[in-house]
Design goal:
Layout (H helix, E strand, L loop, with lengths): L1 E7 L7 H9 L7 E5 L8 H9 L5 E4 L2 H4 L3 H15 L2 E4 L13 H38 L15 H9 L5 H8 L3 H15 L1
Parallel strand pairs: 1-2, 1-3, 3-4
Helix pairs in contact: 4-5, 6-7
């Protein structure tokens, strides 16, 4: 049986290029497993389903090694689980040297292992560089005054009256929150700010 594994890091990323590569290899649509999740580890639902489904002699296509994962140790471990424990063949479409159907002799295995280690290292290194660039970008944006997260909801004009009615037990807390148009957490925060302001 032939399978394909496709991974993108988030729901808004496009997996079309990988799906097209699977189509070109004549992988049946029902045998293509897609995860929209980070490659930092292998706790991915579709990948786990795929591993349970595969049998010795099956063939797995992935477009590039970083689609399998981005953690050096984990990629090497999973590769060995797939090829040695389960007994499947793997073909990395973008890297013909990483096709376990070829070169099953000692030299072929050595070359494939060497290439795998290099590419796994590159995949993890790229992931770490991405995280570093993101952190640097966020820090630079914060220095410029860019705010992250949801925009702050200003308290309604009648906030003081709502608080007074609630404190005088003329209105239940839930009703005061509802009329304010804020969440409970925001209401409490605004209440603390209001009380500090009064001091």
């Amino acid at each position: 049986m032939t399978y394909g594994y496709v991974r993108v890091s988030s729901a808004d990323q496009n997996e079309d290029r990988q799906l097209l590569a699977m189509e070109e290899k004549a992988v049946s649509e029902k045998n293509i497993y897609v995860d929209k999740q980070s490659g930092k580890d292998f706790n991915r639902p579709r990948y786990q389903q795929l591993v349970k489904k595969m049998k010795p002699g099956d063939l797995l296509y992935i477009l590039s090694i970083d689609r399998l994962g981005r953690n050096y140790e984990e990629i090497l471990r999973q590769w060995r689980v797939l090829t040695k424990v389960i007994g499947v063949d793997i073909c990395v479409i973008d890297m013909p040297l990483l096709d376990t159907r070829n070169g099953k002799d000692l030299m072929g295995t050595f070359i494939a292992d060497l290439v795998l280690q290099i590419l796994s290292f590159v995949a993890q290194n790229e992931r770490e560089n991405i995280k570093k660039r993101q952190a640097e970008g966020i820090a630079a944006a914060r220095r410029k005054g860019v705010r992250f997260g949801r925009p702050e909801i200003p308290p309604p004009e009648n906030f003081v009256e709502l608080v007074a009615a609630w404190e005088a037990k003329k209105m239940p807390f839930a009703e005061a929150v509802r009329q304010s148009g804020m969440s409970e957490a925001t209401f409490y925060r605004r209440l603390r700010e209001h009380r500090l302001h009064k001091l």
